[in-house]
Amino acid sequence: MDGILLQILNGLDKGSAYAMIALGLTLIFGTLGVVNFAHGALFMIGAFCAVSLQRLLGLSFETLDPTKKDFLGNPLKVKTPYIESWFGPEMGASIIDWSVPLAILFSIPIMLFVGWAMERGLIKHFYKRPHADQILVTFGLAIVMQEIIKHYYGANPIPTSAPSAFKGSLDFGVMLGFDPNVIIYPYWRLVYFAFSAAVITAVFSFLNFTTFGMVVRAGMADRETVGLLGINIDRRFTIMFGIAAAVAGLAGVMYAPINSPNYHMGMDFLVLSFVVVVVGGMGSLRGAVAAGFLLGVLESFASMNWIKDVIPGIDQIIIYLVAILILLTRPRGLMGRKGVMED
């Protein structure tokens, strides 16, 4: 039982990232009908927003500390972050320590602007083009973004620290009545799951309980009719593209302490996220989220040693095997609308 619970936790952790990226992909496909292969790059940019803010907060200047001397008796040069000189040592150190959560606020306007620029500058010209054209142009855009990040940040992963309050692990098993040290799980991974659940809930609440969201959902169902009512549905869809980009960026920001950001992390998640979208059902927001968590849990169980001993490499292909089985029996996916991907 303890092994099962641990794998479920691991699966929810992976599924959180899959679900958030897939949710953004589905928002774009459902509103604009665009297959956006640059969405993984938005996840990567979000992670590097966390890296950038941590570096900005860590900028420092050198001063001579008379209390510290080298072997010749000269005062040593000490680096002092600007943030500490402005807010004091304790407050400054605390701000630096909490740079990743603060990067949420830092990244939102950046990701909204990037999403708006992508949609207005490039993708709007491909609305009526075949999906193959959309895939080619967005995939090319993803490669351009990837190379820009590689040029400015280098090819090596960049360690990004979580706040010290969330370092270490929680004895999760004790809370459930197990013996101590049976189910140990990192605090930050639990925070990531809770954060993902909050973002997903916020997106669904926005779409279901606000006038703006209701109009967008109506436009997803029948764009022409909504346009005939005098509503500028295109402008609303552009805003939704920016929101989808922000969701992917937030997923990347909070994922930075889990997996050190690198220039190809967007591509690593992109293919898996598209599989999640297809399994859940193209255009189905609930399907994307459900499939993200489902496939994350399946992948986690497939990574167990005794399963890999029986079927070597199953953890690398389990998601694709499930996708094949579902698409053979139900081409529109688990929660896709009838007729989508079935003709």
Short key terms for the protein model shown above:
343 residues, mainly alpha, two-stranded antiparallel ribbon, ABC transporter involved in vitamin B12 uptake, BtuC, 68% helix
Q: Could you explain the architecture of this structure?
A:
The protein has about 350 residues and is mainly α. The chain has a single domain, classed as ABC transporter involved in vitamin B12 uptake, BtuC (Orthogonal Bundle), CATH 1.10.3470. It contains 15 helices and 4 strands. β1 (about 60-70) and β2 form a beta hairpin. The model has no long low-confidence stretch (mean pLDDT about 85).
Question: What's a quick, concise take on this entry?
Answer:
The protein is mainly alpha-helical and 343 residues long. It has helices at 2-32, 39-57, 82-87, 89-97, 99-121, 131-153, 172-175, 187-209, 211-221, 223-228, 233-255, 265-280, 285-302, 305-310, 314-329, and strands at residues 60-69, 75-81, 169-171, 184-186. The mean pLDDT is 85.
Strand percent estimate: 5-15%
Question: What class, by secondary structure content?
Answer: mainly alpha
Mass-distribution shape: globular
The chain-level mean pLDDT equals: 85
Q: Spans of 5+ residues with little confidence (pLDDT < 50)?
A: none
CATH architecture: Orthogonal Bundle
